[in-house]
Amino acid sequence: MTTTSTATAAQTHEQPRPKRSFSPRTSFYLMVAPALVLFFVFHTVPVIQGVFYSFTDSPGYGTFDFVGLRNYLALFTDARVLHAYGFTFLIAAVATVAVNIIALGIAIGLNARIKWRTTLRGVYFVPNILAILIVGYIFNYLFSNSLPALGEKLGIEWLSTSLLTDASTAWLGIVILAVWQSAAFNIIIYLAGLQTVPTDLYEAAAIDGAGAWRQFRSITFPMIAGFFTINMVLSLKGFLQVFDHIVALTGGGPGTSTESVALLIYKGGFQGGEYGYQSANSVIFFIVIVTLSILQLRFLQKRETSV
Amino acid sequence: MTTHKINWWLTALLAVLSLTILIPLYFAVVTALKTPDQLGGTGFGLPESLEWSNFRTAWELTRFPTAALNSALITVGAVVLTLLTNSMVAYAIARNMHRKFFRGLYFYFVSALFVPFPIIMLPVAKQTALLGMDNRAGLILLYVVYGLAFNIFIFTAYINSIPRELEEAAAIDGASTWATFWRVIFPLLAPMNATVGILTCLWAWNDFLLPLVILSNPDSATLPLVQYVFQSQFQTNYPVAFASYLMAMAPLFLVYVFAQRWVISGVVRGAVK
Question: What transmembrane ranges does the database entry give (chain B) (predicted)?
Answer without folding.
Answer: 7-29, 72-93, 105-125, 137-159, 180-205, 238-259
